[in-house]
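Input record, target 12 of the design panel.
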């Protein structure tokens, strides 16, 4: 069987995966009370090109243009923009606004879903509200951009900033940060065995099998852990014991889906799917 052969090859390369211990030292995360109105455009290429009408059909198309087209962004911010930081609200006028590239400079972004079905339905023409969350674990801070679709047009309606420990899914986020940054902790929180799905190199068809926690490093995607972006399509997590995490790239070249479930009060990775 093809998968058995793959596992045999995997065992030959297990020595390449060494335990690195704690990848990041335990440091005290200090909260911040600073307010940043908008990010700069140091590395993002700002495009001034016509935006197709179809850009409003799907949020993914809209946000690409919003993050790369300055004039388009200026026309899609609801001024005066409500900006609430740690309980204090202020209004940002159009003349105060500077171009904000949001997560255009990041190669990797996350999406957190309650189940696989919600992942499939994340981006449709019926979607009317999306939250883009910038999570900064080094500053214990979350900055949330609230987008709404009214009369067929997407706009940025407000921005909220708060301490990360006040986020609705803070328990899972704290777990994820440690899972992503600490290799020993990660191996302890991978179910043995876990379900593994990957593409066959010859047929490009999905192959499913099982693997052990020690084999994680062979198939593992890059896990951002200091500053991450979560695109929330307002999918309610009705089952607090299960989370589906999608890791994607800006160019769409790769994506991984990680499924976690709480077992005996602890989060465990139970499935990894690489596309």
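The sequence produced for target 12 reads:
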């Amino acid at each position: 069987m093809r998968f058995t052969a793959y596992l045999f090859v995997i065992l030959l390369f297990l020595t390449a995966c060494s335990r690195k211990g704690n990848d990041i030292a335990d440091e005290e995360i200090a909260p911040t009370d600073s307010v940043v109105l908008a990010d700069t455009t140091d590395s993002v290429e700002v495009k001034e090109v016509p935006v197709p009408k179809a850009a409003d059909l799907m949020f993914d198309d809209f946000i690409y243009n919003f993050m790369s087209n300055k004039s388009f962004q200026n026309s899609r911010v609801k001024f005066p923009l409500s900006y609430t930081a740690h309980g204090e609200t202020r209004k940002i006028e159009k003349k105060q606004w500077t171009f904000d590239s949001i997560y255009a400079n990041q190669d990797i972004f996350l999406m957190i879903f309650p189940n696989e079905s919600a992942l499939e339905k994340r981006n449709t023409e019926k979607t009317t509200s999306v939250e883009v969350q910038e999570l900064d674990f080094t500053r214990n801070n979350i900055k949330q951009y609230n987008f709404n679709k009214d009369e067929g047009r997407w706009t940025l309606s407000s921005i909220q900033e708060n301490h990360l420990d006040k986020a609705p899914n803070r328990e899972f986020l704290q777990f994820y940060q440690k899972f992503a940054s600490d290799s020993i902790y990660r191996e302890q929180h991978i179910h043995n065995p876990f379900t593994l799905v990957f593409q066959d190199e010859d047929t490009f068809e999905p192959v499913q099998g099982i693997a052990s926690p020690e084999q994680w490093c062979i198939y593992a995607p890059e896990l951002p852990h200091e500053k991450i972006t979560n695109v929330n399509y307002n999918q309610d997590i009705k089952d607090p014991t299960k989370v589906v995490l999608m890791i994607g790239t800006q160019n769409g070249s790769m994506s991984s889906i990680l499924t976690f479930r709480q077992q005996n009060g602890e989060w465990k990775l139970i499935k990894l799917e690489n596309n």
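The domain at 2-28+168-274 is CATH 3.10.450 (Nuclear Transport Factor 2; Chain: A,).
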